[in-house]
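Need residues for this backbone.
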């Protein structure tokens, strides 16, 4: 798990896959809040490991298509990578919007005013919570699987 967490934290972006109303996948990049070089104040908060389960937080616009897809189908996957060394982690699981305003405020970064001009109470500021059910990693010349194997 140390290697899995290392790859996640080093990844420049988080790539989120969701499912649309027709059952088709869509992938887009998110700010990787687990990267301590970019979000030092969120280190230890944006990524929580409990055994082989990871909980991670991300931000996006409430008005985005991905939020509507998450509301309709919470099943999702996240991909993190170090492309220069061909190492990657795919986390499958469920994702949900965080409704608790105090939690959203605890994650708030002033640099996000460019995305959410009304600040931490902006109705377009959404905090997402992802909980893994399966982790697959590609590193050390092999595939590694943690969690569910269905």
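Answer:
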């Amino acid at each position: 798990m140390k290697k899995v967490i290392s790859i996640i934290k080093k990844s420049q972006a988080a790539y989120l896959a969701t499912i649309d109303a027709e059952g088709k996948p869509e992938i887009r990049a998110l700010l990787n809040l687990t990267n301590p070089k970019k979000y030092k104040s969120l280190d230890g908060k944006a990524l929580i490991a409990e055994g082989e389960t990871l909980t991670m937080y991300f931000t996006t616009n409430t008005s985005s298509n991905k939020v509507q897809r998450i509301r309709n189908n919470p099943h999702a996957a996240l991909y993190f990578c170090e492309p220069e060394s061909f190492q990657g982690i795919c986390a499958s699981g469920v994702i949900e919007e965080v409704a608790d305003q105090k939690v959203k405020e605890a994650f708030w970064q002033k640099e996000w005013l460019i995305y959410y001009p009304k600040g931490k109470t902006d109705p377009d500021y959404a905090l997402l919570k992802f909980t893994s059910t399966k982790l697959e990693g590609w590193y050390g010349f092999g595939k590694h699987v943690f969690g569910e194997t269905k």
